[in-house]
Design brief:
By secondary structure, the chain is mainly alpha-helical. The protein has 14 helices and six strands. It has a single domain, classed as Ammonium transporter AmtB like domains (Ammonium transporter fold, Orthogonal Bundle). A hairpin with a 4-residue loop joins strand 1 and strand 2. Keywords: Ammonia transport, Membrane, Transmembrane, Transmembrane helix, Transport.
Length: about 450
Amino acid sequence: MSLNLAAVHADQVSLNSLVQNLVYASGTVGAIMVVVGLLMIDAGTTRHKNLLTSTVEKLMGFFIGFAVYFLIGFSLWAAQYYIIEDATLGDSIADWWMGGGMVNARAHEVSPDIFPGLNNFQIFVFFLACFAGIINVLLHFAVAERMKAAAYFILCIAATLVSSALSWATWGSVGPLTNPGFHDFFGVGFVYLFPAGMALVLVPRLGARPGMFAPHPKVPSYNAPSIGLAATGLMTIFAGLPMVILSCLFFFDPEALAVSVTMANTSVGIAFNNYGLSWAGGALSGLLIAYKTRNYAYTLLGPLAGYVAGASGFDVYLPWQMFLVSLGAPFVAWAVYEFTLKRGIDEHKLFPLFLGAGSYGLVMLGVFKAGTPRGGYLGIEEGAYAFQHGQIGIVMQVAGTLACIGAGAVTALVVGLILEKTIGLRISEEAQADGLDKLAWDVEHDGDSIVLTPGE
């Protein structure tokens, strides 16, 4: 199709709109950096005999989530903004499924009267699709080295569909939980608590890995191969997430006034500084715990715990409040970590970081920032969706937290039961001990290296 310059809608492709396009596009870069960081953490903490399999499964889980989100997921999240305009979920799906009218339209050919800022919304599909994939990567941390690949891939499809619907309810400003008052700036609920809820059901069914809690004839102990690589992955995530923060802000006239995705009053500088202090506070407490317990794991868990605890309120906390909340987060993660160790529960990431620090952070937000106006949508002055008609409160924070964990648990319970009765969930203990790279890829290891047979 040739370009008809006379038919170009200039408002859709103005310089100001391009600046916003670049802001949201940077969020996709940040999200991909998070994936890189997660893969590095996995490479630094996974047995060598399982690392190839673990990396491949995480990577494929990411792209399964990415593709399914493009297929239908975004249309579920976007429905909240259709409903406030008296449209329906069906209208949103018609526009925003992979073959939908708005997904496949060129912004300069669509009148702003029909859909203003179309490029931004199209970029947002890519951005949120990355996080649909990240949810699957996080889930894999809880089930890695124990779950059959086919079962995991099927769970990825289910997780993407359910988390997409959950994001409609819990991330934004006019969903059924966000509009009344549930506040979650960075998507802690549907990105972190949801896979942790799934892990609550799946981990007990899969059991512990050989050598994790007691010596196994073939695995005397489970040792992390490279904490240096894991620490590098940690800092890669730290570098990528500031760009994601920009994509969690909406920009309106005059000029580039920023409000959060929850429609709370905020600013770019405050959100960035809160982000940095969340890591710093968590790192300091994590360092203290690490030296006290002589367990290096808390040097990694600490900054992550501070970040996860603060992420739901980067937009509304004052920096000193953010620092205090993040200082407390590693102690919550520590309590959950020790609880799981004493009971032989083989899950040392999602439970302490997400169920522990994430839930703590959402509740603390309801304590520190109770009464903060948010919700609705800018430009709506009255009615159920009036701008900032709702307030942060402890009741809605607890309700939203439980809803996200519960959605994950129910998803895993239903899909997991079906998988157990059909293809099965768990890889045998003997195969786990021998190494999954040999089982899945016929790859042998010589120390830290992969041995390739002739012709490979």
